[in-house]
Amino acid sequence: MPLEFAPADAPAIPLHVIAQDGAEAWAAGQPERIATWVRAAGFTGALGATLLVPGEDGRIEMALAGYGTPQGRARGRFHLAGVAAALPDGDYRLEGLPEERAAEEALGWLLASYAFDRYRDQSAAKARLVAPEGLDAGRLVAIAAGEWLTRDLINTPAADMGPSDLEAACAGLAKEFGAEIDVVRGEALLEKNFPMIHAVGRAAAQEPRLIDMRWGDKGPALTLVGKGVCFDTGGLNLKPGASMGLMKKDMGGAATVLGLARMIMALEVPVKLRVLVPAVENSVSANAFRPGDILTARNGLTVEINNTDAEGRLVLADALSFGAEESPDLMVSMATLTGAARVAVGPDLAPYFTDDGALASALDKAGETVADPVWRLPFHAPYETMIEPGIADLDNAPKGGFGGAITAALFLRRFAGETRYAHFDIYGWSTGNGPARPKGGVGMGARALLDALPGVLSL
Fold first, then answer.
1. CA dist., res. 381 & res. 148, Å (int)
2. Could you give the CA distance from residue 318 to residue 350 in angstroms, rounded to a whole number?
3. Which ranges carry the Cytosol aminopeptidase domain (predicted)?
4. Is pLDDT above 90 for 124?
């Protein structure tokens, strides 16, 4: 289904949004025929309930959407997306939706029409929405398109989304928006001083690479760095099968920054945008890097490899060092980095780290505003000793198991230099079929960051 709203002048079916405590009062204000139908159907305004009301000619005259209670709505988001999935094909116009929920629900409706259908036909919501008055419909479509891109990239299995395919996706995005792209591949990574990207990816069938995309020539400089591990076997510290099943999503950080970049370019946000994606596959072969190896990163720091399955921070380190050399006004990394982050906040929250209080305040507020929840975790300086092994400057996998998300973030901060910096440790996957969030790849933190940018960068 095309990603679009119905035309504003479409002969749309009224969709009345009714809270649980207002259903009877609403019915009492309707003609007896309609009130009788609603009462006979047992419609109470329960959250997610849907009722079609026929006219005298048997065609749909209106539809009702239950909006529950404030307490029930607080336990989720995009509630009308579930209603959209239950409605028959047609155009609908919202009536009675609180104005402060209009943007969230309109975006959720667009996201409900997403389906990953590359390998088989998939069903998605067919009902189209007339954008509520007062909303920037074009902005919402651009945001949804960025999220669709993120989902498509994550959902595609590694056989069709290896480093070369991820490069092709970046090239396609660059072409669409007139961005420039440069790629360093294979042995050239060593020649141009990206030794850890090369080390992690050299055992794979497809060459490791660093993708560098630039767009915009005015405004503050914004650099986005996304972990592009297209599949993670764990390397010589091989993952068990149960842990390997979802590793096609280990490039979720790259997918998320590319989705965010699409939003920024489509909306013509006045920034000098740079996107860095170290794209590799962490595989096993005779030349795979080993536990106990000591690698020297781009910025000269040495790293002892105590687990080859902690590879994401290694490829990000070289990319962050490269990005920091230009001293951008803001640098943000996104990565499906640690299981510890999932233990701490679960799969639905996007934890982030920053030393910048103003940036944190803006992100927290934006996350609530656009229904993209984020949660700040600390760069806890006393844990720095945990990533210092003695034999080298840094340890990529400190022992003990405590504070794993924090120690990983502290590791990355060593490569961001003095740049204003934030790191997101995301999951990138929806575990169930919630409204507007079907099971599969999903963006996290991108919409919050997009909403925060004007204040953070004084745009």
1. 37
2. 23
3. 307-314
4. no
Look up 313 and say whether it is catalytic: yes
Q: How many H-runs (helices) and E-runs (strands) does the chain carry? A: 16, 19
Query: Looking at domain 13-125, which CATH architecture does it have?
Result: 3-Layer(aba) Sandwich (3.40)
Does the structure show a pLDDT above 80 at 1? no
pLDDT number for residue 123:
82
Task: Enter the DSSP assignment of 437.
Answer: B
Pairing, β 330-335 against β 350-354: unpaired
Compute the average pLDDT of residues 202-213: 98
Cα first-last separation, the chain: 34
CA 420 centroid distance within chain: 21
The hierarchical CATH code for the domain 142-456 is 3.40.630.10
Residues in the chain: 459
Q: What are phi and psi of 148, to 5 degrees?
A: -60, -40
Q: Which DSSP string do the residues of 302-331 spell out, in sequence order? A: EEE-S-TT--HHHHHHHHHHHHHTT--SEE
The catalytic position among 39, 214, 239, 365 is 239
- The pLDDT > 70 percentage for the chain reads 100
Phi, psi (5° rounding) for residue 397? Answer: -150, 75
b/e map 239-271, b = 16+ CB within 10 Å? eeeeeeebbbbbbbbbbbbbbbbbbbbbeebbb
Cβ–Cβ < 8 Å for 342, 427: yes
Choosing from 77, 249, 298, 313, the catalytic residue is 313
The residues spanned by each domain of the chain are 13-125, 142-456
Could you give the CA distance from residue 123 to residue 82 in angstroms, rounded to a whole number? Answer: 13
Per residue in 215-240, pLDDT (tens digit) is 999 999 999 999 999 999 999 999 99
Residues 65-78: pLDDT tens digits? 999 999 999 999 99
Cα–Cα dist 332/226, whole Å = 9
At 2 the pLDDT is 81
Q: Which residues pair with 377 in a beta bridge?
A: 353
Q: What is the pLDDT of residue 83?
A: 95
What is the mean predicted confidence (pLDDT) over 266-293? 98
